[in-house]
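Fold this complex.
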Amino acid sequence: MSMINDLIYFETPALWEDFGGTSGGYGGLVWQVFIWSLIVGLIVFVWMAYNLIYFRHKEGDPEHKDSLKAGVFPHERGDAKIELAWTIAPLILAIWLTFISLAPLDYLWDIPEEDDVDIVIEVTAVQWQWTFDFPNDYEVPEDFTKCGELNEAGVRQQNEITTYDCLELPHDSMVRFNINSNDVLHAFYIPEIGVKHDAVPNIETLVWIDTGQVDPGEYNLYCAEYCGESHSRMLANIYITEA
Amino acid sequence: MNNKSLKILSVGFLISILVALSAFPTGDALSSGITGSTTSTVEANGCSCHGPEVTTSVSIELTLPENFTAGGTYTLTLNISGGPNDGVRGENYGGFFVTATHGILEPLENDTSVQKPFDKTHLTHTTEGNDYRGWNFSWTAPDRDDVIVTFTAYGNSVNGDGGASNADRWNSGSFDLMGVNAVAISDKHVELTTPQKMIYAFTILAVTLGVVVIGNRMVTNEQAFEEVLRDAWKAIYPWLTTTDHKYIGLLYISTGFIFLFIAGFLALLLRVQLFEADNDFMTDQEYNSTFTMHGTTMIFMAAMPIIFGFANYLVPLQIGARDLAFPRLNALSYWLLPTGGLLIYAGYFTGGAGDVGWTGYAPYSSGDTATKPGTDFWVAGQIMLGASSTLTAINFLTTILRMRAPGVTFMKMPLYTWSMFITVFLLLLSIPVFTVALILLMADRTFGTLYFDISAGGDAVLWQHLFWYFGHPEVYILILPAFGILSEVTSTFSRRPIFGYTSMVYAMASIGIISFVVYGHHMFTSGADPFFRFAVMLTTMLVGVPTGIKIFNWLATMTGGSIVTKTPMLFALGTILTFTIGGITGVILAMLPLDIALHDTYFVIGHLHYVAVGGVLFAFLAGVYYWYPKMIGKMLSEKLGLLHFTLSFISFNVAFYPMHHVGLAGMPRRYASYDSSLTELNQLISIGAFVFGIAQIILVYNLIYSFKYGEEAGDNPWDGWSLEWATSSPPPHNSFKEIPTLKLAEEAE
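Structure:
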């Protein structure tokens, strides 16, 4: 059944698959996070089950010698070595997970210069619309037919370099987005790829994607930062077309 | 009519209002003008021209002569302004619709931008005419001039993309034109506004119920009217004037649970909206107000009061004090809560409660597009709640520092009191910052200051720093008392002392300290300095360490114990499991490269509910079952408790676990609609949420049933050790007949 499938398997964003080739697949960041989560969860679950099976109260059990009495602070109970062990182990795990995040983080934050990418797109977010401006000298490929108006022949054609709530990009290219907002906070979010950045008024924020990471097709762009009445309708379509 | 059928009648009355409101159809607008069958819906119910709601940002102007004479012909001009592309002419930029109660409307000769659809009396734009924001047309007056003609006009400001779009805005206007001999009638029938109707309906309902209740009393007890009122007053008066920590504690807890049920009901409304991918159960603005009120109520009016309620009742008992240090200040803190709550909810009667989210991010919250005055009410109420929390924090800090009984040294305090001590410390350091931020926001909204105004060069991220400096410690303010309860319950029901008391105290203290240096993890995508973001990622990962210590210590407490699985323990065990899941997803969210995709999606919603419901609420339900016998003197029914736990635990996981999947699939939070491929999972979540909501009714029933028929509890029904179990259930007026001394186990033997 599809719902059970949905509940077992995770759909992960395309970016997570290899994080630029350094942290993908078995042993990669996502895999390790998943495995460690499973291990920690299982330790707690199994230990609790073990406690409930072997240490249940039964009728006639003798009272333990340090059992509790009202108005009396109980005996100290503990073991410094064990407590130290489960302080240090999570500490190591936390530092390890931070360490393996460094390479993906470097990949994500190493935003290419405008000259090093194929297209630079100026994104402007307003309540509740996305505007995409291609560079002035950009020549829209002729087979881009998703975002424009109908021409005389009744064929949809993108002949303008500015599009609204719709963006068509060539496959296999590096795209950099310079994001601005004209009113409140918004966020530029493409779930299938796994990039997100707030659009902050007065500050230009940057996001870059490699359209080769996903198959050609239709993708959603959401506004992910609450921006008022029609926040949930501030969507755009992104088409990645084999050019 | 008896009481029961009256209740049914009133419920039916409310339901029928809701049904009537939801079944209200509106017409849609088209690029080729409003013609044919659309006309009658637009005439009857108004337009939903490209968007469901009227916006005042678009203004409609109809130029009319001063008055008219019978049979005359006049040229009228309709102009619209505001909305997208204001002041420009362009392809597909506008549209209109106009009718008159008398006379005949006609397009001007040779004008191709205005049309009169066949068989109709109104005018509308043509496909060609939708490139304009202004139109001229003629109107021929009727044969009589003693009437007032009303013109109704709709104007649509369109962004030019050739179809209905979210950016399109429309408004309507009504214009009167007097005939030369018409007499103006000033006392026109005035429609009641929705809030007025609500207030009248509730007043009628309250008066009717009052009459029934008082009448019933008068008849059954054969009392005079004054006597009934006097008795009622006698019953209420002590609660209104009390400064006793136990009474105030119960007031806090019951107010908290009432708000919990209100906010839970709002959550169910949200889940009704999300039952279908593109539902129109609520308008966008209603949805936004609803999730804002849900979050605000749950955090500030449900969780915090329940925490303070338990603390009020238990901290003095656990440290052997007769009351808090400042009892009257305590009463003031409590009474600020319902007042602030009412103020925030008053927004609903002003055309829309606050819609800024519980986080109230500026510059949205400081701008014009947030509901007004709903958001002003939200801000004002939050300031009152902030004041209440600050006073409470001072009160508890003083009490715990100065009023401990002999023997109750710091390292001999029960872990619940320890958790409250650290909690109020965090609260005192954090909530004033939020209150100050709210005052700045109020100044921006009300007095025209520019703290958050971006056009004046304000920093759009400033609010996030101010808010999360408070907001993150707030999360620990909620979970630390829950940790305290879990420590008490696991130890008592394992019939052994807690494992590693000292490390538990240090773990809580270090969570408290770390909580002030992690708040930046709420701002991973905000464009803050990369080093800042990396630093808070590291500190956030470190929170996992003391939290892990606590979980392992609870499990170690059970190992070697003699576990009694009564309801409080069941809830504690359930909490440990669900909180562990919430902790794990918390670490995943702390991982910056992953959080960039997960931030502001349903994954976060799943995580925070695993922590806030699976952690805080479940722990406090354990607390209710654990301390109810102490507070009321009766045991809660175990059978109902078991049923309550089982249903709650299962439906909780059904409701909140799939949210992680929905989030990974990319559904952003605070969305009133979603991609239709996620319909099945969302329906599962909604069903889970409804079962969870219904399961809580069992608790209410159990509380009432056991109050009447429960077994007597005795002083120490669970064999706990802390001082509250050394006094009677419920405790006497001054809590202790004489101040007790806490003994040490080593000495007592």
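Chain A touches chain B through 100 residues (CB under 8 Å).
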